[in-house]
């Protein structure tokens, strides 16, 4: 690595940061130099772990001259405010998904970065995963013809993991459509070309004690004639990880009883205040926080079964690569599994920050993903087709280091 590491400031040390922690601890291309979080314990843990400085406010963090880029991992509804703040201070911005919870906020984020002439990347979504990018490169190579159908399915325990009250309120960005469809829609848009023309969906909110969407199914049509079906169920019974070689979403072996344990833990919680406290204490700096253990990088992260049907073959995404089924039979194309989890996010950050590339997961792309997510909610309420108007095409072709 010839160039200096990217000096990151972290705004928000909660769950999203906790999931990125193995990346930040092990990828030498980034150096965490400062952070802000309202929890004093998280700030103290940051200084101890990274040797950086805990700043007293978001403004102080963004004004820090040692910080080049701001990683924004605050709650969804705060993203627009924090992107604008970072941009005013001339910092590049890496924002957790979903980009925001309204299209107007997305547009404000894009415009703020354009005015300040600073880059904007939205991630992590699972469309960064190595097998997804490999499948896109196989499609771009042309051997399989046009994509005709993408099927994506994921069954998790999402709704019964510890939640803050707003995470169970759709109006405040809660539920599986904002937090989880952002992954699936990014994946299928990347594989099917990006330009969604019609969305028809049904959503499910089946537990009055968790009053938000816990499931959805949607049919997406694309400008190139492809279509996609996406299904998500976060009610914590069946687990589609059994179809992914027993690997969990983070690319590690999964306990087959994980969903049962999630529901059992929640049943022991007395009220929403205790539940919110439990979530906070599991995160970085909390009393229940467990530092990530070293892992053997034999599998990539994933977001459930994905099958791409092309004119001349089918591509099945797995945690280790892509199974190809075509007229020649079956064969397997191994993905390049990085030694650091979510290194693909840093690949894109590095290419933008140090090589001047345009981001694959830029503002316009990620606003289009949110537009489809909002269309799923609207179609579920109204039982009609919704026609997005702010879609953008995937940037072809993807190179091996995209």
Main attributes?
402 residues, alpha/beta, Rossmann fold, Dihydrodipicolinate Reductase, domain 2, 2 domains, 8-stranded mixed β-sheet, 6-stranded parallel β-sheet
Task: Please sum up the structure shown.
The chain is an alpha/beta fold and 402 residues long.
Please explain how this structure is put together.
There is one protein chain. The chain has 402 residues and is of the alpha/beta class. The protein folds into two domains: 6-126 and 341-362, NAD(P)-binding Rossmann-like Domain (Rossmann fold, 3-Layer(aba) Sandwich); 129-338 and 369-382, Dihydrodipicolinate Reductase, domain 2. The protein contains eleven helices and 14 strands. Strands 8-9-10-7-11-12-13-14 form an eight-stranded mixed β-sheet. The protein has a six-stranded parallel β-sheet with strand order 3-2-1-4-5-6, with helices on both faces. α4 (79-88) packs parallel to α5, α5 (103-116) packs antiparallel against α11 and α7 (176-192) crosses α11 (363-382). The chain is globular, with a radius of gyration of 20 Å. The two termini are 17 Å apart. The mean pLDDT is 95.
Over the alpha carbons, how many angstroms does the gyration radius reach? 20 Å
Q: Structural class from helices and strands?
A: alpha/beta
Number of E strands: 14
What kind of sheet is the major sheet? 8 strands, mixed
| Domain module count | 2
Q: Kindly report the average pLDDT value.
A: 95
């Amino acid at each position: 690595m010839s160039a200096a590491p990217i000096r990151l400031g972290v705004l928000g040390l909660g769950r999203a940061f906790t999931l990125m922690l193995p990346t930040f601890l092990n990828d030498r291309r980034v150096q965490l130099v400062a952070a802000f979080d309202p929890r004093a314990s998280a700030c103290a843990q940051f200084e101890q772990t990274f040797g950086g400085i805990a700043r007293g406010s978001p403004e102080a963090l963004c004004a820090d001259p040692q910080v080049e880029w701001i990683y924004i991992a605050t709650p969804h509804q705060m993203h627009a405010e924090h992107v604008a703040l970072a941009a005013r201070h001339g910092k590049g911005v890496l924002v957790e998904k979903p980009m925001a919870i309204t299209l107007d906020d997305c547009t404000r984020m894009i415009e703020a970065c354009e005015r300040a002439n600073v880059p904007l990347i939205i991630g992590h979504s699972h469309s960064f995963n190595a097998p997804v990018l490999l499948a896109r490169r196989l499609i771009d190579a042309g051997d399989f013809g046009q994509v005709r159908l993408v099927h994506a399915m994921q069954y998790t325990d999402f709704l019964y993991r510890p939640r803050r009250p707003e995470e169970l309120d759709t109006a405040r960005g809660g539920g599986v459509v904002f937090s989880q469809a952002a992954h699936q829609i990014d994946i299928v848009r990347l594989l099917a070309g990006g330009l969604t023309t019609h969305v028809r969906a049904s959503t499910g909110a089946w537990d009055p004690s968790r009053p938000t969407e816990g499931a959805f199914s949607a049919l997406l049509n694309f400008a190139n004639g492809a279509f996609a079906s996406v299904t998500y169920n976060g009610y914590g019974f069946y687990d589609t990880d059994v179809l992914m070689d027993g690997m969990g979403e983070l690319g590690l072996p999964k306990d087959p009883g994980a969903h049962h344990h999630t529901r059992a833990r929640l049943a022991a919680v007395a009220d929403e205040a205790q539940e919110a406290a439990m979530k906070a204490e599991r995160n970085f700096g909390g009393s229940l926080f467990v530092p990530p253990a070293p892992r053997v990088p034999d599998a990539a992260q994933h977001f459930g079964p994905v099958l791409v049907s092309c004119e001349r073959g089918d591509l099945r995404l797995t945690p280790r690569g892509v199974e190809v089924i075509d007229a020649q039979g079956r064969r397997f194309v191994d993905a390049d599994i990085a030694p650091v989890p979510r290194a693909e996010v840093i690949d894109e950050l590095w290419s933008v920050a140090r090589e001047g590339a345009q981001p694959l997961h830029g503002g316009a792309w990620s606003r289009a993903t949110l537009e489809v997510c909002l269309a799923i909610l609207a179609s579920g309420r109204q039982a009609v087709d919704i026609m997005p108007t702010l879609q953008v095409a995937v940037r072809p072709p993807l190179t091996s280091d995209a």
